[in-house]
Structure to design on (422 residues):
DNA sequence: CGCGACCTTGAGATGGCTCAATACCAGTGG
DNA sequence: CCACTGGTATTGAGCCATCTCAAGGTCGCG
């Protein structure tokens, strides 16, 4: 049985690393779990995470969920090719964003906007590889490593993300995620201080696990 | 046992629907299966399909393959955020493309390039939903429907794509793809004339199957 | 203290995988 | 013309990774 000191979402430091185009907008806050916009709504606004984290969600008619991406401080989201959001966006934890009209992007250089979309695309393709071809263990490990990198967290990762969100991102069930984490700990590869704080004890070995 | 009149790839009509930026380049042909560029190579060229079809492939160290996207006539591919291709590109069948230096894109408008990347991204997110949350039957059906639409093929889809490529795109094995198609035919939803030519007999029912 | 949200663990079921055999077709060479 | 080969597709049988269902634990909060 696992020690379970804290079931609250870990705070995410508001560090905008700003490789994205500057975008002035109105600040807005969302509570944990709150919807920022819904699938199918008119996509006339674009957003940028200031602090917290955002999930982009696609849902099937029968309720199956797939999180297609997370966004962390400094990142832009809500930009669409069409006039409607293809995925919903929700706050993963207490989150603040800035909002701007989409038209306010037109002044940006082609390079910067295009680069942003391309980076998202590449991350999505990595994700597709994970979903299509990796085992449960590989999925969880690659997720932890990706998160450590994106949050610039070193070896000690504070998960702003629940087991359910991990499962919905990784195409697994919550039970499988939980069991996998337990097993990784039993193997000495990670240490789970509390369920939202994970220490990557053997990053080299972890990286080898997923390729 | 299935009639199997033809195991050759179906030809893909060279119909560039040209919503993409005009891009003059040198024409080049590739044989079925031939590599156009490899994962990790310097990404200084961009390509456009003239006829045929192209697959973008990510491969794990142990050989597991995931096709992250297909490209059909008129579509651009090979554009990267970084300086290196993140996925390899291969000709699915006899294919001709035009090639240009990446720098030749800089004259294009922000809107058009950006829109292209965003469309690819949205398709990739759909793909992630399929890989993460749909059953084998749903995957195959959504693939057939997507292909019918992208090839503008109506109800009679000529697959330029082998069972193995379908499997590698859908995150399944070739056996599962084959069994699924057999079952769809037994259910009267499709008719397989030869293994590369599929008739969607009840498109409505098929669409309902995957959402 | 009791409730609700979240997480873990166990036992059994199952969808898709693995391994193996067979079939079909195109091309090649005798 | 046939035999043979290699690439592709289909089918079957058994297995296993993950899912489902169910129970219990931990924490934060009213």
């Amino acid at each position: 049985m696992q020690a379970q000191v804290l079931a609250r979402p870990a705070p995410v430091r508001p560090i905008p690393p700003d490789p994205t185009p500057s975008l002035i907008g109105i600040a807005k806050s969302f509570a944990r779990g709150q919807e920022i916009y819904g699938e199918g709504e008119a996509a006339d606004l674009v957003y940028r995470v200031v602090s917290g984290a955002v999930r982009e969600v696609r849902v099937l008619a029968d309720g199956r969920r797939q999180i297609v991406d997370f966004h962390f401080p400094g990142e832009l989201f809500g930009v669409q090719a069409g006039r409607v959001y293809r995925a919903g966006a929700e706050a993963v934890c207490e989150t603040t964003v800035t909002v701007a009209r989409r038209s306010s992007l037109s002044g940006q250089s082609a390079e910067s906007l295009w680069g942003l979309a391309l980076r998202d695309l590449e991350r999505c393709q990595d994700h597709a590889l994970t979903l299509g071809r990796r085992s449960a263990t590989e999925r969880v490990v690659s997720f932890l490593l990706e998160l450590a990198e994106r949050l610039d967290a070193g070896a000690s990762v504070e998960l702003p993300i629940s087991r359910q969100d991990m499962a919905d991102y990784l195409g697994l069930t919550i039970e499988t995620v939980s069991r996998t984490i337990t097993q990784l700990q039993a193997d000495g590869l990670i240490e789970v201080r509390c369920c939202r704080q994970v220490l990557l004890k053997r990053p080299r070995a972890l990286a080898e696990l997923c390729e």
Summary: The longest strand of chain B covers residues 45-51.
